[in-house]
Amino acid sequence: MSSRRSSRNSRQSGGSRITNISDDQITDLVSKLQQLLPEIRNRRSDKVSASKVLQETCNYIKNLHREVDDLSDRLSQLLATTDMDTDQAAIIRSLLM
Amino acid sequence: MNPQLLSLSPNNSSLKSRFTLGFLRALKRLNMQTSSSPSPPQTVSSSSSSSPREMCRRYLRIRIAADASMASAVGSRRAWSRTLLLKIRNRQFRSCNSSARRISMKKKCSGRKMKKKLKCDKEINELRKFVPGGEAMDACSLLDEAAHYIKCLNTQVKVMTRIADIYSAT
C-alpha cells in the first residue's frame, strides 16, 4: 500500500503530465470510507454504489458537525452555572481510564 | 485493580487523551475569562451574565476551542488539521489573510490541471465542502482525509458528550 502511495505521489509531482487516478484506487478508498459509516457498514459492498457512499459521507459529516455545535451550546450553558475546578480531576480520570 | 485500566493505551498520548487535555485546558481558560470580565450593571441574572450575545459568544468560543484542540491533537500530519489551524490562527490575528488566500488559490489551480473526469465527480465536489481544505485536494487525498476526519470527529463528539454529562450530573 505504501509503495502504491509513493508511486502515486511521484506521478503527481511530475507536474505537466495528467495524473491517472484509477477507478481502483477510488473504489479502495470508498470501501474504506464505507467501513466508517454506521448506516451502510453492514451491507455488502457490491450493493452500495460509490456515489451512495459519498452522499452518506457528506450527510454523516454534516450530522457530526451539528452534534459538535449542540454539544458546544450545552457546554456553554453548563459553563455558566457549574464550578469547573473541582471536577477536572474526576473528568480526566473517568475519560482516560 | 480496576479492570478498565487494562484497556488504557500503552502510550498515554493517544489522540483521545491529547484532545481531552487540550480541550479541558481551553475550557478552564474560557471559564476564567468569563468570570473575570465585569458583568454589565443592568443585567438582572442570578448567575454570571447570561445575555443572548454573551451566550452566543461563549458558544462560538467553545466550538472554536473544540476544533482547535482537535486540530492540534492531530498535529500537522494531516491536511485538514493544518487547514483548520491556519484558519483559526488567521481568525485570531487577521494579519495574514491575504497570504493565506494566495496560497490556497495557487493550490487550486494545480489541482484542476491534474483532475481527470471521474464517475462520482458531483459527489466528490460536494464532499470537498465538508472537509477542511478539501477544495485544494485531488480525489484520492480527499477521500483519505475524509476518513481520518470522520474518525477524529467521532472522538471529539464522544469526549465532549462525556464532559457535558459529567458536568450536568454534578
From TrEMBL, chain A:
Q: Which SUPFAM superfamilies match?
A: HLH, helix-loop-helix DNA-binding domain (SSF47459)
UniProt cross-references to InterPro entries, sorted A to Z: bHLH_dom (IPR011598), HLH_DNA-bd_sf (IPR036638), PRE (IPR044293)
Q: Which GO terms describe its cellular component?
A: nucleus
- BHLH domain location is 10-64
Q: Which GO terms describe its biological process?
A: regulation of DNA-templated transcription; regulation of growth
Q: Where, per UniProt, does this protein localize?
A: Nucleus
Where is the stretch described as Disordered? 1-21
One of its Pfam families is bHLH_ILI
The Gene Ontology terms for molecular function here are:
protein dimerization activity
Q: Which UniProt keywords apply?
A: Growth regulation, Nucleus, Transcription, Transcription regulation
Say where the protein is mainly found: nucleus
Q: Write the protein's name.
A: BHLH domain-containing protein
- Organism of provenance: Rubus argutus (Southern blackberry)
TrEMBL record, chain B:
Instruction: Quote the biased-composition stretches of kind Low complexity, using this chain's numbering.
Output: 33-52
| Residue segments, region Disordered | 31-52
Record's Pfam families? IBH1_N
Q: Could you tell me which InterPro entries the record lists for this protein?
A: HLH_DNA-bd_sf (IPR036638), IBH1-like (IPR044660), IBH1_N (IPR059002)
Q: Does the keyword Transcription regulation apply?
A: yes
Q: Which domain of life is it from?
A: Eukaryota
User: What's the name of the protein?
Assistant: IBH1-like N-terminal domain-containing protein
Organism this protein belongs to? Rubus argutus (Southern blackberry)
